[in-house]
Every structure is written in C-alpha cells, then in structure tokens.
Request: fold
Amino acid sequence: MPRTLVTGGAGFLGSHICEYLLKKGHQVIAMDNLLTGTVANIEHLQCEEFNFIKHNVTEYIYCAGSIDYVLHFASPASPKDYLELPIQTLKVGALGTHKALGLALEKKATFLLASTSEVYGDPKVHPQKEDYWGHVNPVGPRGVYDEAKRFAEAITMAYHRYHALDTKIVRIFNTYGPRMRPKDGRAIPAFIPQALKNQPLTVFGDGSQTRSFCYVKDLIDGIYRLLVSDYHEPMNVGNPYEMTIKELAETIIQVTGSKSEIIYYPLPVDDPKVRQPDIAAAKKILGWEPRVPLEEGLRGTVEWFKQQDL
Ligand code: NAD
Ligand code: UDP
Reply:
C-alpha cells in the first residue's frame, strides 16, 4: 500500500486529491495549517488509512515511517487570498516547497508540485504551451504568487537534476467544483452564490478577458496520470474550452435560473487578458483530456453551493 503525504490536503484541490488517492488504495496523510482550508473538507475521509496533521509546511516537516509520494498543494490560491496573505504565499511557495522536497529526498519519494498557469503571467503567447516562459510582473500584486510558483518550479527541477529526485510539475489552469470557499473571491465561487441569491454578478473590467475552466474531477484524473508517469518537465492540465468572463456570468445566471443582472467593477491590476492551456502534451503523454462539459460541472457545483451557508 503506497503511503502519500499531501500538503494543503484540507484545501479545495488537496481534499479531492486525498479522496482520489484513498480510492486508489493509498494511505494518505493530509498536512495543512488551515490558513485557507478547513477540516470540513476532509471530515468525510476519516478512516484507518487517513491521517490529518496540522502543520505549517514552511517549517521543517517531520513524518515518521516510509513515504512513497509527496504532493505539494499548500498555498493560498485565489487572488483575494494571496493579496491578503502576500508573505505567507511567498513563504509557502519558496520555503514550503524546499521543505517538501527535502522530505521527499529523505524518504526517496516521488514529488509532485502543484504549479499554476500564473507562471505564464499576462501571456503574450496564446494558447499557452509549456515551452512559453511567460510574461510576469515580479513587483505587481500578483507577483507574490506568480514568482513563488516560478521559484517552486525552479527548485523542483534543481532537485530533479542535482539529486536525481523523481519529480513532476503540474501547471494547473482555473479549476472549479464542490468545496471551493464561497468567499474565496474567484469568479465561479463568487458568481454562483450571487446568482443563487438573485444579487448582481460582479464582473471585473468589461468582462472580455478570457479563462478556460476545468472541472475538478477531470483535473484530479490528469494529475494522477502525471504522478504515475515518467515525465519530469512541467505539464499543463486544464480544459482548453475558453470563454469570456461575461459569458461565464451569463452561463451561471442561466444554469441557476437566476434573476440576477451583471454589474461591472474595475479590472484588478495585472489581471491576465487571456488564458487557455495547450494540452497537446497531456493528450500525447498521459492519454488525458477533460471530459466534463462546463454546464454539467457547473450544475454539480451549484448543487454543492446550495447546501452551504451563503
Ligand atoms: P485552497 O486555498 O483551497 O487550498 C490550499 C491549502 O493549502 C489550504 O488548505 C491551506 O490551508 C493550505 N496551506 C496554505 N499555506 C500553508 C502552509 N504554510 N502550511 C500548510 N498548509 C498550508 O486552494 P486550492 O484551489 O485547493 O489550491 C491548491 C493548490 O493548487 C495551490 O498550490 C494552488 O496554487 C494550486 N492551483 C490551484 C488552481 C485552482 O484553480 N484551484 C489553479 C492553479 C494552481
Ligand atoms: N472576476 C470577476 N468577478 C469576480 C471574480 C473574478 O470578474 O467576482 C474575474 C477576474 O478579474 C479574472 C477572472 O474573473 O479576470 C478569473 O478570476 P479568478 O480569480 O477566478 O482566477 P484568475 O484571475 O486567477 O484566473
């Protein structure tokens, strides 16, 4: 039975990864300091094969016994969170990644880094392919997240090349689904509660900026395939179905049957104008592509939000 440590395991994606790995027969340790996550996300996973350890992974990570896989998901992830937590974001991307790599090296474990499409910044190449180096403002408000993740990728490749550690880097594009925090400020968890309450949907800018949204089930399947592959270069995993944020707001109004209107607020500084993954590598190397259409994924997400305290 493989034994796996997931940092950020009480977060949105981390909790889904823990659940998936338990189903695959792993023993799972979720390590999290609950900065933006909650034990409510993992309560349903309680069993003999699952453990939760409350720990800040920017500090030395101690874990008794053998570990086969280390998945490093800990980091504030929504623009609202990382703007409010700039130092913690830089520390978990830099010091936290160093500690998680150190643990993987000590245990001779496979290491997977949850990186992001934000390493491409406000991209000048569209769609984004893995060999694009990006267009990032290091000193802008988003720089705390983007540069921390770029450092995290660099130190992961250094451990791979210098220590021959078995490493994987997944560049995750915008992902949504159950267990996103209603107040985390990202577009989908902002719009769904607004629509359910018949309040105006808050579109930033004129809504012409684009994103490509992947349902969490598809993403986790792609990440697992990368984890068990022999591939060590960064890999995009996301849904190439691109839409404007205005179209997203209209779709959510339609899916929820809401009476909401759309109101417009100023566009945040350095908000990327376009974003769409090129997933040719994931298709070829992992045999992976997303399967859940947006409206189906949104319906599942809406059902979950209906049960939350909005
Ligand atoms: P999330 O905020 O729900 O989860 C992050 C988790 O990390 C939280 O449970 C938080 O408490 C924990 N954490 C933060 N700092 C920590 C620390 N120092 N020590 C221990 N735990 C800590 O966010 P998410 O959407 O689940 O994102 C998870 C990972 O995936 C992040 O690394 C993020 O950068 C990456 N990612 C997510 C998306 C997306 O669309 N959801 C896109 C790209 C990348
Ligand atoms: N956005 C918006 N209204 C909101 C929240 C976000 O118009 O209430 C926009 C945001 O400016 C960005 C897009 O939606 O252009 C996606 O934002 P999100 O925070 O979900 O992800 P990211 O910017 O990291 O891709």
Observations:
- Residues 78-79, 174, 186-187, 190, 202-204, 209, 211, 245, 268, 271 surround uridine-5'-diphosphate (ligand 2) (CB under 6 Å).
